[in-house]
Amino acid sequence: MKNLILYYSRKGENYLNGSIRSIAKGNTERCAEFIRRAVGGDLFEIETVKAYPADYMACTRVAQDELRAGARPELRQMVTDLSPYDNVFVCGPCWWGTFPCAVFTQLEALDFTGKKVIPLMTHEGSGLGRCERDLQKLCAGAVFGKGLAVHGADAERSEDAVAAWARAQV
Ligand SMILES: Cc1cc2nc3c(=O)[nH]c(=O)nc-3n(C[C@H](O)[C@H](O)[C@H](O)COP(=O)(O)O)c2cc1C
After folding, report:
1. Stated pTM of the model
2. For the domain 3-169, what is the CATH code?
3. Residue to mutate (ligand 1; options 94, 122, 134, 158; most atoms within 8 A of CB)
4. Average of pLDDT values for 119-129?
């Protein structure tokens, strides 16, 4: 069973347990790497052409505007063909209750017929939010694994939990 691990993760300022800190590696990126270490597969980072503001509060405003407008930000590169894969892990931070719009840009470009889609979301309190419902709309023809929510501030220490969950999905 071949796995694709798609992830979006923002470096720079982040909100961790009530304070804003600068981090070199995004929380979701860590989790995506834990998935690969546990079950193997191809890791693909979703990156926008236009960078989001490094400033946390400014970023939240841009993200909210995008979500309201149904934006589909342009990506630097995209996966175009899922035929080599059986399972697609979709990993991203919770932005206003769901994945960043950039994740949707990527998902809309793919044919999910017959694939298994497994969401992982890092968050600061919202859990999986409404990401599973949104994925069901965007990934027509897929079957869905059990989603995992990881508290972003604990991402560094989540390897055992992420690995056990990932192994149970594939
Ligand atoms: C634009 C933006 C919006 C966010 N909205 C939420 C939210 O609605 N609920 C929540 O629990 N956390 C929210 N957060 C916190 C992130 O989900 C959390 O810090 C996540 O772990 C960041 O992952 P990353 O480092 O991989 O980008 C938001 C963060 C940003 C930057």
Report:
1. 0.95
2. 3.40.50.360
3. 94
4. 97
Block residue for tokens 């890092």: 122
Q: Which atom of ligand 1 is nearest to the CA of 15?
A: 19
Contact 69, 100 (CB under 8 A): no
Exposure on the CB side of residue 107, measured as CA atoms within 13 A: 28
User: What token pair was written down for 32?
Assistant: 């995506």
Nearest CA to 117 out of 143, 82, 148 is that of 143
End-to-end Cα separation, the chain, in angstroms? 7
Does the pLDDT value for residue 54 go beyond 90?
no
**Distance (Å, rounded) from C-alpha 104 to C-alpha 101?**
5
Residue nearest ligand 1's atom 6 by CA: 95
CB 144 within 8 A of CB 115: no
